[in-house]
């Protein structure tokens, strides 16, 4: 019979594969203010949330409510922040994309109007407001992809702080394990060919080899769906010689 492969065990969503919720402070999103209203806030504290590399700014707005937002570079305790369409297009202010000039670096972008910010929230990341049209705003993301966004979606001007965090070496495997555990990611990862045949489709044999093509179809059943899933091409790229 064998055992369930790791892919299938993770799919069930057991406790050992979930991200740890201990140390979480609050959802990081914008307050639900009207778009046409201008509100002011002040950064009360910069805090660390487990499983997040970027620092989180604890902001108190003029309605005496607190919000937690990923802090952009240059944020300090006591920094003032404006939110709304009438806010000035300066660093750390929150405006709708339609009011942000072309070429501006933005972060924490709303995917849908009023969702509080879903895109570009990782440490050191930013997107560029590429161009404006009548009913959309083109935003260029770090991947190079350009999306047409709703001009009423809000974004924060600036770059998310904490860039370069991944460049610091872990030095010890235990530190890496805790880092991955806080994000609910699998670590360490054992190669399929290094496992026994009962644990993985690539396992077993006298030598460490797959024994069959590593490409599998898109509709392959769970447990066997490992390797190169529905690849367009595999192997080395063939460069044609110029005549």
- What structural class results from the helix and strand content? mainly beta
Silhouette: elongated
Whole-number mean pLDDT = 90
The CA-CA distance between the termini, in Å, is 57 Å
Report the major sheet. 6 strands, antiparallel
Question: What are the low-pLDDT stretches, counting only 5+ consecutive residues below 50?
Answer: none
Q: How many extended strands?
A: 12
- Using only C-alpha atoms, the radius of gyration works out to 23 Å
What is the count of structural domains? 2
Strand order of the largest sheet: 5-10-6-7-8-9
CATH architecture of the largest domain: Roll
Tell me the strand percentage band: 15-25%
The CATH class of the largest domain: Mainly Beta
SSE string, helices as H and strands as E: HEEEEEEEEEEHEE
CATH level 3 topology of the largest domain: SH3 type barrels
Helix content, binned percent: under 10%
Number of helices: 2
């Amino acid at each position: 019979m064998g055992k369930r492969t790791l892919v299938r065990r993770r799919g069930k969503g057991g406790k050992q594969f979930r991200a740890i919720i201990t140390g979480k402070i609050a959802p990081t999103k914008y307050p639900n203010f009207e778009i046409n209203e201008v509100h002011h806030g002040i950064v009360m504290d910069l805090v660390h949330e487990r499983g997040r590399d970027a620092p989180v700014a604890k902001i108190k707005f003029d309605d005496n409510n607190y919000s937690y937002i990923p802090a952009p570079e240059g944020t300090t305790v006591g920094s003032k922040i404006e939110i709304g369409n009438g806010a000035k297009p300066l660093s750390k202010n929150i405006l709708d994309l339609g009011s942000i000039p072309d070429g501006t670096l933005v972060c924490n972008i709303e995917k849908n109007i009023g969702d509080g910010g879903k895109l570009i929230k990782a440490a050191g990341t930013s997107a560029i407001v590429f161009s404006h049209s009548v009913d959309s705003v083109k935003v260029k993301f770090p991947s190079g992809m350009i999306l047409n966004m709703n001009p009423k979606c809000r974004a924060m001007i600036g770059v998310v702080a904490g860039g370069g965090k991944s460049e610091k070496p872990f030095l010890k495997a235990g530190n890496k394990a805790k880092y991955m555990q806080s994000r609910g990611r699998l670590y360490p990862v054992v190669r399929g060919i290094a496992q026994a045949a009962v644990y993985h489709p690539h396992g077993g044999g006298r030598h460490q080899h797959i024994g069959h093509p590593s490409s599998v179809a898109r509709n392959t059943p769970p447990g066997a769906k490992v390797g190169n899933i529905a690849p367009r091409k595999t192997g080395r790229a063939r460069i044609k010689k110029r005549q």
